[in-house]
Amino acid sequence: MHDITLVVTLTAALAVALVLGWVTQRLGLSTLVGYLLAGIVVGPHTPGFVADGALASRLAEIGVILLLFSVGMHFHVRDLLRVWRVAVPGAIAQSAVAGVCGWLLARAFGWSGIAGAAFGMSLAVASTAVLTRMLIDNGKLATHGGHVAVGWLIVEDMFTVLALVVLPALALAQSGGSLGIALLAALAKAAAFGVLLWALGNPIVKRVMEPVARTRSEELFTLAVFVIALGIAVIAAGVFQVSVALGAFFAGLVVGRSRIGPQAAAFMTPFRDVFAALFFVSVGMLFDPWFPLEAPWLVLLGVAIVLVAKPLAAWTIVRALRDTPRTAATVSVGLAQIGEFSFLLGALGVSLGVLPQAGLDALVAIAIVSIAVNPLLFRAQARWEATLAPPQGAGEPARDPASAELEGHVVLCGDGPLHRGLLPRLRAREAAVAMIDDDLDYVNAQAATGVFAVYGTPSRPDVLRAAGVERAGVLVIAGGTLAARMAVSVAARAVRPGLPIVATALDAAEHAWLKEFGVTAVADVLDPAVDAIADCVRHTLDAAPR
Predict the structure, then answer these.
(1) Using one digit for the tens of pLDDT, what is the confidence trace for 24-67?
(2) Distance in angstroms (rounded) separating the CA atoms of residues 386 and 373
(3) What is the pTM of this model?
(4) 210-215: long-range contacts (C-beta < 8 A, 24 or more apart)?
(5) Of 84, 393, 414, 446, most Cβ neighbours within 10 A?
């Protein structure tokens, strides 16, 4: 009989994660809470079915790699540069406050100084997934406060990457080695790997990814992205002795800065979400649900650090740097939680013998409480903001100076001669255009002429965002199948509900379907009547509210 342990573990873990993730989302909480609870349900500390923890842990490693790969792909220095005056000193100071508080708490419970450092670092970093979701749900992602919070989180992500280098050195020092030598060696290896990959990354992507992209085969493209992510992570661990998570982050940086980055992010997102769910389930399996009763003060004081000390530090720092109360509130509330990177650092600390198992148990308990409370804090903030005067001045909302030239532009996508024939007509009418196409050679050729060109499938939200659809004046869908045009419209509405959309139709039936699927204006054409479509685009732009 075949051994079906792997299949049973996968099925049970994902099924329970699905159910509890749905329940927690319906309750207004993050799905991460549901995934952690799913791990507790199928773990060894609760009655009933027990999943294979060793198998779940191995599968979770893929989730870690894909999580860090995704962080690397979405890591944009420009997002940090526009708010660096607040985000950089603020994140450093707040992380120091949380880290010291965590270290003091660990020492109070008799842990070693190194264990305290690992625990403090884990408490200092917030969850990217939770913060982004909360900012989107509360309409704050595009505000100045949202930009500062995201920039703040980018700095914390950098600390996480640094911690991935430091923790193994701390483990070596704990076993009797020299801490200074261990740190220098670890930093030197990580720096050598990063410099080498940065120098060779673009040639690697060009030789591996671009030929595959030209085949227009989605399955081959997805496989190629997986090979790049996993391959570089393996090389990082096997050759440079740095963690696979750090290698995956650097791989994401390389792919993210290439022209195929947005499409790679779009294709990897479903796989990342599935394996990330397994990662959270595996963390929940390690958690003893009776631990909060055994060490209530450790959990309560840890929760106080995350929900009180971190927000107060953030508020004080933002106000001291003379930003608005709204910005201070958004940053304080948004970062009052911990999540995936805390688990990553905690699990790494346990595996290296730096952090006791009680440390990881405490982190899981603190995360469940803080993630559950975070939506309530945002609601309280919204009620408080309603009592204030409307925002004025430079505080709200913010513009992105790096892409100011794309403000109010036309995003053009589609397929065939109609789509490509429209591009020169729009440019001739002095319209700023961002073009999306799935032919890499055509994209490169247009980029060489000065067009802001994005490679990818326009029905993918990441690709639409890469073309600046959140700041666009109008989206134009010219040519392609009716199903493809409807899919692009649905995706664009999900990214930006109020976006004006112009699409082409061949007959009255297509006209009706496109209107049904959210298209603002339909250009009815029986042939490549690009001038008529360009007129429709200009009319829609002129009619859009400013």
Answers:
(1) 988 878 888 899 899 999 988 888 888 887 888 788 888 888 88
(2) 20
(3) 0.73
(4) 210/260, 210/440, 213/260, 213/263, 213/440, 213/455, 214/439, 214/440, 214/441
(5) 414
